[in-house]
Amino acid sequence: MKEVEKLLKLGEDVKITKIEEVGGEKIIYVESRKNKVRCPEFNTFTKSIHGHLKPMTIKDLKIEEHHSKLIVTKRRFKCYKCNKIFTEPMNINGKNRNISEKLRIKILQELLDYNLSLKWIGRIIM
Fold first, then answer.
1. What is the 3 state secondary structure string of the chain?
2. Sign of CA dihedral 11, 94, 121, 109
């Protein structure tokens, strides 16, 4: 699994729990390794897990000419200083996005380099 994590370049704070191949598509299950997360309001660390969010499906770059999807399970934490519940941040995708940052950058590079339409790039990449 360590080799796959290095190959996908997801970061040190993310671990891969399972990899499946369904219908020619790679499905990679991902979760965070962090034990404590910083509260966005008071900037203090908390370990108190409030719960888990429904797993998110995120499109990623192709792996060996196979489409790939990341199934990300995020946790929700509770800060006892401000009594707020917040979701842990992960650098896989931006807020409210269903594609990975790597895929977004690849699409933008294709747009700039080759001056192709979004429809054409969508056919090639996705």
1. CHHHHHHHCCCCCEEEEEEEEECCEEEEEEEECCCCEECCCCCCEECCEEEECCCEEEEEEEECCEEEEEEEECEEEECCCCCCEEECCCCCCCCCCCECHHHHHHHHHHHHHHCCCHHHHHHHHC
2. negative
Q: Show the tokens assigned to 11.
A: 């970061």
Work out the pLDDT band at 29, boundaries 50, 70, 90.
very high
CA 116/CA 110 separation, integer angstroms: 7
- List, in order, residues 6 or more apart from 23 with CB less than 8 Å away: none
Average pLDDT of span 88-115: 83
pTM to 2 decimals?
Answer: 0.79
Q: Both tokens of residue 3?
A: 């080799």
Tens-digit pLDDT profile for residues 103-112: 888 888 888 8
